[in-house]
Amino acid sequence: MGYDIKWIIPKLRNSTNLWNFASSITFAAVGIVSKIIMEWLNKTTVYNKHIIERALNSRPKEVPLITVSNHHSCFDDPGIWSTLNLKNLLNRRKMRWSLAAHDICFTNMWHSYFFMLGKCIPVIRGNGIYQEAIDFCIEKLGKGDWIHIFPEGKVNMFKENMRLKWGIGRLIFESPVVPLVVPIIHLGMDQVLPNKTPYMIKIKKKITLYYGEPIDFSEMLIGLRKSNADEVEARKAITDRIQNELLKLKAATEKLHTQL
C-alpha cells in the first residue's frame, strides 16, 4: 500500500491564513530559484508571453483559466512558470493549481506538505476521470481559478505524439463557466533536468517556450449540448481539439527551437 492521501484534498479545501502565508513563501522560494535556473543559468526564449500575462491580468474574475502543455521533464512545473513576470510569479492567489502524480509527489507527509503548499493536487493515475482530484479542479474552475494540466498523463520521455487523457475534456465540459484555454509547448526542459540519474540541474542549455492563441470552446460546447452529445462524445471531441492545437503548436515550436 502506498502513502494514504485521503486527507490531502480536504485539507486543501480548508486552508487557514497561516497556511496561505506558508504557501506564499513556498511559491516565492521555488519561483525565484527556478527563475535563476531558467533565465540566468540557461538560455530561455519565450514566444507570445503576452498571452499568458493577459490571461492572468485581464480576464474577468469569474472566467477560469486552463493551461495545457506537453510534459518532458520533472522540471516542467515550476520551470514554465518561472518565466512569468514577478508580480504574477509571486502572487500565490493568481498562480495555478496543478495536478501531480500521487505516487511521485505525495509519497510521505513532508513531500505532501511541500507540494500542497505549492497548490498541487494529488491525482491517482489509472483511477480514471471520476476521482476527487478532478472534482476538486472543477470546484476551483467554478471560482475562476487557474488550473494547469499535463494531458499526456506522464513524463513523455520519448516525445511521442501520445493520445491525451480525457480528464481535460471533463474539466472543460463540466466547468461552471466556459474556461479560457491556453495551449503551451516547451522544448529543452529535459536538458535542464534530464530524466536519468543523478537528476542534477544542468546549465547553458537552450529552452524554447511557446504560448499558443487561446482556444475558444464556447461554440463547441453549445453545439455539443444542442446535439445532446453524451459525456463520452463530448470529452472526446474536446480532447481531440486540444490535441490538434498542441500538435500544430509543437511543429511551430520545433522549427523555432532549431533556429536559435
UniProtKB/TrEMBL annotation:
State what protein this is by name. Tafazzin family protein
Which keywords does the record carry? Acyltransferase, Lipid metabolism, Membrane, Mitochondrion, Mitochondrion inner membrane, Mitochondrion outer membrane, Transferase
Which GO BP terms sit in this record? cardiolipin acyl-chain remodeling; inner mitochondrial membrane organization
Q: Which organism is it from?
A: Ceratosolen solmsi marchali
- Which gene is the coding source of this polypeptide chain? LOC105359110
Query: Looking at the keywords, is Mitochondrion present?
Result: yes
**Species lineage:** Eukaryota, Metazoa, Ecdysozoa, Arthropoda, Hexapoda
Every copy of the Phospholipid/glycerol acyltransferase domain together lies at 65-189
Question: Family per UniProt?
Answer: Belongs to the taffazin family.
A single GO CC term for this protein reads: mitochondrial outer membrane
MF terms per GO, please? 1-acylglycerophosphocholine O-acyltransferase activity
